[in-house]
Specification:
single chain, Jelly Rolls, about 20% strand, globular, disordered C terminus
Protein backbone atom coordinates (compact mmCIF):
# COMPACT_ATOMS: atom_id res chain seq x y z
CA UNK A 1 0.00 0.00 0.00
CA UNK A 2 1.13 3.55 -0.76
CA UNK A 3 1.10 4.71 2.86
CA UNK A 4 2.64 8.09 2.02
CA UNK A 5 -0.35 8.91 -0.15
CA UNK A 6 -2.72 7.94 2.64
CA UNK A 7 -0.83 10.21 5.03
CA UNK A 8 -0.96 12.98 2.45
CA UNK A 9 -4.75 12.81 2.26
CA UNK A 10 -5.19 12.46 6.02
CA UNK A 11 -3.10 15.57 6.60
CA UNK A 12 -5.03 17.50 3.98
CA UNK A 13 -8.53 16.61 5.19
CA UNK A 14 -7.78 17.58 8.77
CA UNK A 15 -9.49 15.88 11.70
CA UNK A 16 -10.33 19.13 13.41
CA UNK A 17 -12.47 18.33 16.42
CA UNK A 18 -13.83 15.47 18.50
CA UNK A 19 -16.04 14.72 21.47
CA UNK A 20 -16.50 11.40 23.27
CA UNK A 21 -18.87 10.12 25.93
CA UNK A 22 -19.63 6.94 27.85
CA UNK A 23 -22.77 4.88 27.19
CA UNK A 24 -23.83 2.04 29.46
CA UNK A 25 -26.83 -0.25 29.37
CA UNK A 26 -28.57 -2.81 31.55
CA UNK A 27 -31.29 -5.31 30.69
CA UNK A 28 -33.47 -4.42 27.70
CA UNK A 29 -32.06 -1.21 26.22
CA UNK A 30 -31.59 0.62 22.94
CA UNK A 31 -30.02 3.90 21.90
CA UNK A 32 -30.78 5.31 18.47
CA UNK A 33 -28.78 8.05 16.74
CA UNK A 34 -30.12 10.10 13.84
CA UNK A 35 -28.10 10.87 10.74
CA UNK A 36 -25.01 12.75 11.87
CA UNK A 37 -25.87 15.66 9.59
CA UNK A 38 -28.98 16.32 11.68
CA UNK A 39 -26.95 16.86 14.87
CA UNK A 40 -23.57 17.99 13.50
CA UNK A 41 -24.17 21.66 14.34
CA UNK A 42 -24.97 20.78 17.96
CA UNK A 43 -22.26 18.14 18.39
CA UNK A 44 -19.33 19.64 16.51
CA UNK A 45 -20.11 23.16 15.25
CA UNK A 46 -18.25 23.97 12.06
CA UNK A 47 -17.36 20.39 11.12
CA UNK A 48 -18.08 19.59 7.47
CA UNK A 49 -18.45 15.84 8.13
CA UNK A 50 -19.12 14.08 11.41
CA UNK A 51 -18.03 10.45 11.73
CA UNK A 52 -19.46 8.43 14.60
CA UNK A 53 -17.16 6.06 16.46
CA UNK A 54 -18.06 3.33 18.97
CA UNK A 55 -15.86 0.91 20.91
CA UNK A 56 -17.29 -1.74 23.22
CA UNK A 57 -15.36 -1.59 26.49
CA UNK A 58 -17.39 -4.22 28.38
CA UNK A 59 -20.08 -6.77 27.58
CA UNK A 60 -21.76 -7.13 24.21
CA UNK A 61 -24.44 -5.44 22.11
CA UNK A 62 -25.88 -5.16 18.61
CA UNK A 63 -25.43 -2.37 16.08
CA UNK A 64 -27.44 -1.72 12.93
CA UNK A 65 -27.93 1.01 10.38
CA UNK A 66 -31.63 1.78 10.51
CA UNK A 67 -33.43 -0.58 8.13
CA UNK A 68 -30.53 -3.02 7.75
CA UNK A 69 -29.50 -6.27 9.44
CA UNK A 70 -27.83 -5.92 12.86
CA UNK A 71 -24.34 -7.10 13.75
CA UNK A 72 -23.29 -8.48 17.12
CA UNK A 73 -20.40 -6.74 18.88
CA UNK A 74 -18.23 -7.92 21.75
CA UNK A 75 -15.69 -6.37 24.06
CA UNK A 76 -12.93 -4.59 22.14
CA UNK A 77 -14.85 -4.36 18.86
CA UNK A 78 -14.76 -0.97 17.12
CA UNK A 79 -17.43 0.46 14.80
CA UNK A 80 -17.31 3.59 12.64
CA UNK A 81 -20.11 5.12 10.56
CA UNK A 82 -18.16 7.22 8.02
CA UNK A 83 -21.23 8.22 6.01
CA UNK A 84 -23.19 9.40 9.05
CA UNK A 85 -26.11 6.96 8.74
CA UNK A 86 -28.82 6.80 11.41
CA UNK A 87 -28.21 3.71 13.52
CA UNK A 88 -29.20 1.76 16.62
CA UNK A 89 -27.07 0.24 19.37
CA UNK A 90 -29.03 -2.16 21.54
CA UNK A 91 -28.97 -5.11 23.91
CA UNK A 92 -30.76 -7.35 21.40
CA UNK A 93 -31.37 -7.32 17.65
CA UNK A 94 -34.43 -5.51 16.37
CA UNK A 95 -34.90 -3.05 19.22
CA UNK A 96 -35.62 0.58 18.35
CA UNK A 97 -35.74 3.82 20.28
CA UNK A 98 -36.62 7.43 19.60
CA UNK A 99 -33.59 9.14 18.01
CA UNK A 100 -31.66 10.94 20.70
CA UNK A 101 -31.95 14.50 19.42
CA UNK A 102 -34.33 16.45 21.64
CA UNK A 103 -33.47 18.27 24.84
CA UNK A 104 -30.08 16.57 25.14
CA UNK A 105 -28.55 18.14 22.03
CA UNK A 106 -30.44 21.38 22.63
CA UNK A 107 -28.49 21.84 25.87
CA UNK A 108 -25.40 24.09 25.83
CA UNK A 109 -22.41 21.95 25.03
CA UNK A 110 -20.56 22.78 28.25
CA UNK A 111 -23.61 21.72 30.29
CA UNK A 112 -24.31 18.49 28.42
CA UNK A 113 -23.60 15.33 30.46
CA UNK A 114 -21.13 12.91 28.91
CA UNK A 115 -22.26 9.74 30.65
CA UNK A 116 -25.50 8.17 29.43
CA UNK A 117 -27.08 5.15 31.10
CA UNK A 118 -29.90 3.16 29.50
CA UNK A 119 -31.99 0.71 31.52
CA UNK A 120 -35.45 -0.68 32.07
CA UNK A 121 -36.71 -0.84 28.50
CA UNK A 122 -35.82 0.04 24.94
CA UNK A 123 -35.34 3.74 24.55
CA UNK A 124 -35.49 4.61 28.25
CA UNK A 125 -32.44 6.66 29.15
CA UNK A 126 -31.11 8.18 32.34
CA UNK A 127 -28.76 11.01 31.45
CA UNK A 128 -26.63 11.81 34.43
CA UNK A 129 -23.05 12.93 34.87
CA UNK A 130 -22.76 10.41 37.71
CA UNK A 131 -24.70 7.58 36.06
CA UNK A 132 -24.11 4.19 37.69
CA UNK A 133 -21.77 1.73 36.05
CA UNK A 134 -23.60 -0.86 34.01
CA UNK A 135 -23.34 -4.52 34.91
CA UNK A 136 -24.11 -5.35 31.29
CA UNK A 137 -22.57 -3.31 28.50
CA UNK A 138 -20.38 -0.23 28.30
CA UNK A 139 -19.24 1.67 25.25
CA UNK A 140 -17.23 4.74 24.49
CA UNK A 141 -18.96 6.64 21.71
CA UNK A 142 -17.54 9.58 19.85
CA UNK A 143 -18.06 12.13 17.14
CA UNK A 144 -15.04 12.97 14.99
CA UNK A 145 -15.18 15.98 12.68
CA UNK A 146 -13.21 16.25 9.45
CA UNK A 147 -13.07 18.26 6.24
CA UNK A 148 -15.15 17.05 3.32
CA UNK A 149 -14.51 19.82 0.80
CA UNK A 150 -13.26 20.54 -1.72
CA UNK A 151 -12.14 16.93 -2.31
CA UNK A 152 -11.84 14.10 0.18
CA UNK A 153 -11.20 10.89 -1.79
CA UNK A 154 -11.03 8.83 1.40
CA UNK A 155 -14.56 9.45 2.70
CA UNK A 156 -16.36 8.21 -0.39
CA UNK A 157 -14.45 4.93 -0.38
CA UNK A 158 -15.32 3.97 3.20
CA UNK A 159 -18.29 1.67 3.89
CA UNK A 160 -21.41 2.86 5.65
CA UNK A 161 -20.68 0.57 8.60
CA UNK A 162 -17.02 -0.16 9.26
CA UNK A 163 -16.46 -2.87 11.87
CA UNK A 164 -13.06 -3.79 13.31
CA UNK A 165 -13.21 -6.95 15.43
CA UNK A 166 -11.21 -6.83 18.65
CA UNK A 167 -8.58 -9.17 17.21
CA UNK A 168 -7.77 -6.55 14.57
CA UNK A 169 -8.50 -3.41 16.56
CA UNK A 170 -6.06 -4.33 19.32
CA UNK A 171 -6.34 -3.57 23.03
CA UNK A 172 -5.07 0.00 22.80
CA UNK A 173 -8.08 1.10 20.73
CA UNK A 174 -10.30 0.65 23.77
CA UNK A 175 -7.71 2.26 26.01
CA UNK A 176 -7.44 5.33 23.80
CA UNK A 177 -11.23 5.58 23.56
CA UNK A 178 -11.54 5.44 27.34
CA UNK A 179 -8.88 8.15 27.69
CA UNK A 180 -10.73 10.29 25.12
CA UNK A 181 -13.98 9.94 27.05
CA UNK A 182 -12.32 10.83 30.34
CA UNK A 183 -10.69 13.87 28.73
CA UNK A 184 -14.01 15.00 27.29
CA UNK A 185 -15.71 14.68 30.66
CA UNK A 186 -12.91 16.40 32.60
CA UNK A 187 -12.79 19.47 30.31
CA UNK A 188 -9.31 20.38 31.50
CA UNK A 189 -6.98 22.93 29.95
CA UNK A 190 -5.59 21.50 26.73
CA UNK A 191 -8.37 18.93 26.38
CA UNK A 192 -9.40 20.11 22.93
CA UNK A 193 -5.89 19.72 21.51
CA UNK A 194 -5.43 16.34 23.18
CA UNK A 195 -8.77 15.08 21.85
CA UNK A 196 -7.80 16.10 18.33
CA UNK A 197 -4.59 14.06 18.59
CA UNK A 198 -6.35 11.06 20.11
CA UNK A 199 -9.07 11.10 17.46
CA UNK A 200 -6.43 11.29 14.73
CA UNK A 201 -4.66 8.23 16.12
CA UNK A 202 -7.89 6.27 16.53
CA UNK A 203 -9.24 7.17 13.10
CA UNK A 204 -5.99 6.60 11.20
CA UNK A 205 -5.42 3.26 12.90
CA UNK A 206 -8.96 2.17 12.02
CA UNK A 207 -8.49 3.19 8.38
CA UNK A 208 -5.21 1.30 8.08
CA UNK A 209 -6.63 -1.87 9.60
CA UNK A 210 -9.73 -1.66 7.42
CA UNK A 211 -7.58 -1.25 4.31
CA UNK A 212 -5.39 -4.19 5.24
CA UNK A 213 -8.44 -6.44 5.59
CA UNK A 214 -10.14 -5.54 2.28
CA UNK A 215 -10.58 -8.44 -0.17
CA UNK A 216 -8.46 -8.59 -3.31
CA UNK A 217 -11.46 -7.76 -5.51
CA UNK A 218 -12.30 -4.55 -3.63
CA UNK A 219 -12.53 -1.26 -5.52
CA UNK A 220 -12.30 2.34 -4.38
CA UNK A 221 -9.58 4.76 -3.40
CA UNK A 222 -8.07 2.57 -0.67
CA UNK A 223 -7.99 -0.39 -3.04
CA UNK A 224 -6.26 1.81 -5.59
CA UNK A 225 -3.52 2.66 -3.09
CA UNK A 226 -2.41 -0.95 -2.87
CA UNK A 227 -2.60 -1.67 -6.60
CA UNK A 228 0.86 -2.13 -8.14
CA UNK A 229 0.14 0.37 -10.94
CA UNK A 230 -2.57 2.69 -9.60
CA UNK A 231 -0.86 3.09 -6.21
CA UNK A 232 2.36 4.48 -7.74
CA UNK A 233 0.31 6.66 -10.10
CA UNK A 234 -1.53 8.18 -7.15
CA UNK A 235 1.76 8.72 -5.33
CA UNK A 236 3.16 10.58 -8.35
CA UNK A 237 0.11 12.83 -8.67
CA UNK A 238 0.13 13.60 -4.96
CA UNK A 239 3.88 14.11 -4.89
CA UNK A 240 3.81 16.73 -7.65
CA UNK A 241 0.25 18.02 -8.15
CA UNK A 242 1.51 21.11 -9.98
CA UNK A 243 3.44 19.17 -12.62
CA UNK A 244 2.22 19.15 -16.22
CA UNK A 245 1.12 15.53 -16.12
CA UNK A 246 -0.06 13.69 -19.22
CA UNK A 247 -1.35 10.14 -19.48
CA UNK A 248 1.69 9.22 -21.57
CA UNK A 249 4.09 10.48 -18.88
CA UNK A 250 2.14 8.90 -16.03
CA UNK A 251 1.89 5.55 -17.82
CA UNK A 252 5.58 5.60 -18.64
CA UNK A 253 6.51 6.28 -15.02
CA UNK A 254 4.45 3.37 -13.66
CA UNK A 255 5.22 0.93 -16.48
CA UNK A 256 1.83 0.69 -18.16
CA UNK A 257 0.40 2.00 -21.43
CA UNK A 258 -1.72 5.14 -21.22
CA UNK A 259 -4.90 3.28 -22.20
CA UNK A 260 -4.31 0.41 -19.78
CA UNK A 261 -3.55 2.81 -16.91
CA UNK A 262 -6.57 4.95 -17.74
CA UNK A 263 -8.86 1.90 -17.57
CA UNK A 264 -7.25 0.39 -14.48
CA UNK A 265 -7.30 3.72 -12.61
CA UNK A 266 -10.90 4.45 -13.58
CA UNK A 267 -12.09 0.95 -12.66
CA UNK A 268 -10.53 1.18 -9.19
CA UNK A 269 -10.84 4.85 -8.28
CA UNK A 270 -14.08 5.61 -10.12
CA UNK A 271 -12.74 8.47 -12.23
CA UNK A 272 -9.94 8.99 -14.79
CA UNK A 273 -6.48 10.07 -13.61
CA UNK A 274 -6.64 13.60 -15.04
CA UNK A 275 -10.04 14.25 -13.49
CA UNK A 276 -8.70 13.01 -10.15
CA UNK A 277 -5.67 15.28 -10.52
CA UNK A 278 -7.88 18.31 -11.21
CA UNK A 279 -9.87 17.69 -8.03
CA UNK A 280 -6.78 16.98 -5.92
CA UNK A 281 -5.22 20.24 -7.12
CA UNK A 282 -8.25 22.08 -5.74
CA UNK A 283 -7.82 20.31 -2.40
CA UNK A 284 -4.15 21.32 -2.27
CA UNK A 285 -5.08 24.87 -3.27
CA UNK A 286 -7.73 25.09 -0.56
CA UNK A 287 -5.18 24.15 2.10
CA UNK A 288 -2.71 26.73 0.77
CA UNK A 289 -5.42 29.36 0.86
CA UNK A 290 -6.22 28.58 4.48
CA UNK A 291 -2.74 27.89 5.82
CA UNK A 292 -0.54 30.41 4.02
CA UNK A 293 -0.58 34.07 3.05
CA UNK A 294 0.37 33.29 -0.56
CA UNK A 295 -1.48 35.22 -3.23
CA UNK A 296 -4.08 33.51 -5.40
CA UNK A 297 -1.76 33.96 -8.39
CA UNK A 298 1.08 32.22 -6.56
CA UNK A 299 -1.15 29.34 -5.47
CA UNK A 300 -2.39 28.97 -9.04
CA UNK A 301 1.20 28.38 -10.18
CA UNK A 302 1.83 25.96 -7.31
CA UNK A 303 -1.01 23.70 -8.40
CA UNK A 304 -0.26 23.74 -12.10
CA UNK A 305 -2.11 26.71 -13.60
CA UNK A 306 -0.29 29.24 -15.77
CA UNK A 307 -3.20 31.68 -15.52
CA UNK A 308 -4.76 33.02 -12.33
CA UNK A 309 -8.04 33.48 -14.17
CA UNK A 310 -8.08 29.82 -15.29
CA UNK A 311 -7.37 28.69 -11.73
CA UNK A 312 -10.14 30.88 -10.31
CA UNK A 313 -12.63 29.42 -12.81
CA UNK A 314 -11.53 25.84 -12.02
CA UNK A 315 -11.66 26.41 -8.26
CA UNK A 316 -15.12 27.93 -8.45
CA UNK A 317 -16.34 25.06 -10.62
CA UNK A 318 -15.16 22.40 -8.13
CA UNK A 319 -15.68 24.21 -4.82
CA UNK A 320 -18.63 26.44 -5.64
CA UNK A 321 -16.83 29.58 -4.43
CA UNK A 322 -14.01 31.74 -5.82
CA UNK A 323 -10.65 31.26 -4.04
CA UNK A 324 -10.73 34.66 -2.34
CA UNK A 325 -14.22 34.00 -0.97
CA UNK A 326 -13.17 30.55 0.27
CA UNK A 327 -10.19 32.09 2.05
CA UNK A 328 -12.27 34.89 3.57
CA UNK A 329 -15.00 32.55 4.80
CA UNK A 330 -12.82 29.67 6.02
CA UNK A 331 -9.42 30.96 6.99
CA UNK A 332 -6.93 33.78 6.94
CA UNK A 333 -6.97 36.83 4.63
CA UNK A 334 -4.55 37.05 1.77
CA UNK A 335 -1.67 39.54 1.53
CA UNK A 336 -3.42 41.78 -0.96
CA UNK A 337 -6.68 42.20 -2.81
CA UNK A 338 -7.21 39.40 -5.31
CA UNK A 339 -9.79 38.63 -7.96
CA UNK A 340 -13.01 37.21 -6.55
CA UNK A 341 -14.66 35.89 -9.66
Amino acid sequence: MSRDTLSDVLRSVRLRSAVFYVVSGDRNWAAEAPASGAIAAAVLPGAERVIEYHVVTAGECWVAIVGEAPLKLGQGDVVLLPQGDPHVVSSAPGLRAAPDVGAYFAMPRDERPFRLHYAGGAGTALRCADAPAASGTSLVCGFIGCDARPFNPLLATLPRLMVLPARRAGPWSAQLAQLAAEETIARRAGSEALLERLSEMMFIDAIRKHAESMPDEATGWLAGLRDRFVGPALALLHGAPGAAWTMDELGSRVGLSRSALHKRFTDLIGQPPMQYLAQWRMQVASRLLLETHSSVASIALDVGYDSEAAFVRAFKRVVGLPPATWRRDHGKPGPARVADS
